[in-house]
Amino acid sequence: MAITSINKLEFDTNDVDKYHSLCMLDSTHFAVAYSGEGNDGYVSTFTIDGSYNVSAVDTLEFDTAYAIYTSICKIDSTHFGIYYRNAANGLLKTFSVDANADNITLIDTYTNANPTNYNSLALLDSTHFVVAYQINSTARGNVQVLSFDANCDNITAIDQEQIHNTTTVSLSIVIIDSTHFAVSFAGSGSDGYCVTCSVDESYVITEINLLEHDTANGTNNSMVLVDSTHLANAYTDSSGDGQIVILALDGSFNLSETTSYEFDTGNAGNKSLVLLDSTHMAVAYTGVDNDGFIKVLSFDGSFNFSTDATLEHNETYAGYNSLVAISATHIILVYGESDYDSQIQTFSTGVSAATQYAKELIANITATASRVLQTGKKLTANATATSSMIKGMAFAKALIANITATASQIKQTAKNLTASVTATGSITRAISKALTASVKATGTAVKSIGKFLTANVTAISNFTAIKVILKELTAHINATASMERARTISKILTASATATASFVRSTAKNLTAQVKATPSVIKQTAKSLTANITATASFVAMKVILKTLVANVTATASQVKQTAKNLNASVTVSASNVKAIAKNLTASVTATASFAAGQFYTKVLIATVTATASMVKSTGKVLTATVTASGSMLKAITKTLVANVTATATRASSYVSVSWNKVLNKFRLKHYSLRHYDD
């Protein structure tokens, strides 16, 4: 493996150029911010052709007074921002270019009240920047969030947070995700530090964790995100050597040091680190004798490093380096030569295109296999959920059994009520006849004794009073032969009998009306009970439907489980086959210099993986659709069943309660009359 220079362009010859900052707008267009003649601020755009030859496109002097510590950041392919310091302030400016990276135009400017040093700018999301810097007056490290609108205009400061309370230099910021970022810097005693921060929905910054990874020196930092849980930071240690430290992030974004690697044991300043792919990095730096160096480093899954290639691209001087990876196989570098003229240069990294392609393919296959296995797990989970839903049918069966039992009880209760009402009607009629006869007999007896009782009384409800009066009358008649006393007693008896007769007539009328109304109530009760019993009986028929449904769903669930098992087995076999093919491909590509052979195996592998993925995806869709449809149908039927059962049970309970209360009320009235008759 070897790093090779492709093309070099000197784009500024003013002998004072420094603070280069490079960004890639798209695969063939780039922008560079720097401090030029008179320390004025400049931005230039470039393009590369298919052979990686560089051509200048446009240049704009964006500050005609003073611009140092420039940091450029891409917004999209036609917009970018530059944060820098002038004589009195820190400033953020946004710019636009056309599709050819031409016609650089200033859009808006934000001015920080403080002059800022060691600026490092990054894009948090499509409308927010976050910048790390040192406030010149206090030398403290700070981070700040700034917003801009959809036109990259109207820049507004939102929040600012101090990240270190002593001297802070050499800041390098990296975005972890849309709500988290990390900053490496040299802090107290020039020790090496890294801090993680979060931003909430209002873009308020909160510090999460601070780690001191080097207790002696940590200057000239350049940090990149390796993956979602690892950062790589290149820095200069206390001996001036070049170090790379890997910092791990846990689920709460706390930091810990994993491994470190000394990539240069002589001298390493002005570093710029980039990630080429999942196993390679490139670093440009000022090395021994201030010469310009580039190294390509490889690392494994445990972050064990080795140097794959080294190039001394400038044997005189190379400072203010800014490196960008075009791809894993090509990089582009901006730096200042010995006379501080600005250079832009392209290189091939020596990372084999075939090897890189194979690695990317293996990574894609692994990711695909992981997704397929995950899909299988989800399908299994869905099948399990469906099975649970089917188990829920047991509850429905139990509910149906309870409803059936309740219906039987309701039927029996209805029969009992009908029998009771019929018997009550017979008893009531017998009581009425007996009462009428008793009243007539009593009237005759009273008339013959006192000749003062009213004839044709039809009902007696308070017979106890008459018994008391009759007993007293008999006692008086037996005790005295005096007609005068008998006459007095007769007067008392007449008055009592008159009141009693009036009360008896009223009671008889009410009893007669209630007896007449009772058959209508009984008929209505019977009709309602018949309707409820009919409605309840309809659920018995539904039991047959539900049993059939349960059988169908059980069969479907069984098929789903079996399909999921088959799918998991197929996926496992496919993943194993894919891994085996990938291993064979890697071995073949490594063993041969013929890239055509590698392409052939690659095409075969791609076809196999594509076909497998298509089959799995199709099977997954069909299975998911089947499970979803079965689940939806089962849920709908269960909801309807529960609603009907609940409504019927409520109606039956309510009606039985009302009907029973009515019958009890009628029965109490009859029983009351009968009790007094027996007395």
Secondary structure blueprint with pairings:
Layout: E1 4-12, E2 18-26, E3 29-35, E4 41-48, E5 54-63, E6 68-76, E7 79-85, E8 90-96, E9 105-112, E10 116-125, E11 128-135, E12 141-147, E13 156-164, E14 169-177, E15 180-186, E16 192-199, E17 205-214, E18 219-227, E19 230-236, E20 242-249, E21 255-264, E22 269-277, E23 280-286, E24 292-299, E25 305-314, E26 319-325, E27 330-336, E28 342-348, H1 353-450, H2 463-479, H3 483-591, H4 595-678
Antiparallel strand pairs: 1-28, 2-3, 3-4, 4-5, 6-7, 7-8, 8-9, 10-11, 11-12, 12-13, 14-15, 15-16, 16-17, 18-19, 19-20, 20-21, 22-23, 23-24, 24-25, 26-27, 27-28
Description:
With 679 residues, this protein is an alpha+beta fold. The chain has 2 domains: 4-351, YVTN repeat-like/Quinoprotein amine dehydrogenase (Methylamine Dehydrogenase, Chain H, 7 Propeller), CATH 2.130.10; 370-424 and 522-678, Ferritin, CATH 1.20.1260. Helix content is 45%, strand content 34%. The protein contains 4 helices and 28 strands. Strand 20 (242-249) and strand 21 form a beta hairpin. The chain is elongated and about 150 Å long. Residues 452-463, 592-598 and 670-679 have low confidence and may be disordered.
Give the name of the CATH superfamily of the largest domain. Answer: YVTN repeat-like/Quinoprotein amine dehydrogenase
Biggest sheet features: 4 strands, antiparallel
Distance between the termini: 124 Å
Q: What count of domains describes the coordinates? A: 2
Instruction: Describe the global form.
Output: elongated
From the 3D coordinates, which CATH architecture of the largest domain would you assign?
7 Propeller
Instruction: Compute the average pLDDT.
Output: 77
Please work out how many helical segments DSSP would assign: 4
Question: What is the CATH top level name of the largest domain?
Answer: Mainly Beta
The total of beta strands comes to 28
Rg is: 50 Å
State the secondary-structure class: alpha+beta
> Widest sheet: strand order?
1-28-27-26
CATH topology of the largest domain: Methylamine Dehydrogenase, Chain H
- Helical residues, percent: 40-55%
- Uncertain parts: 452-463, 592-598, 670-679
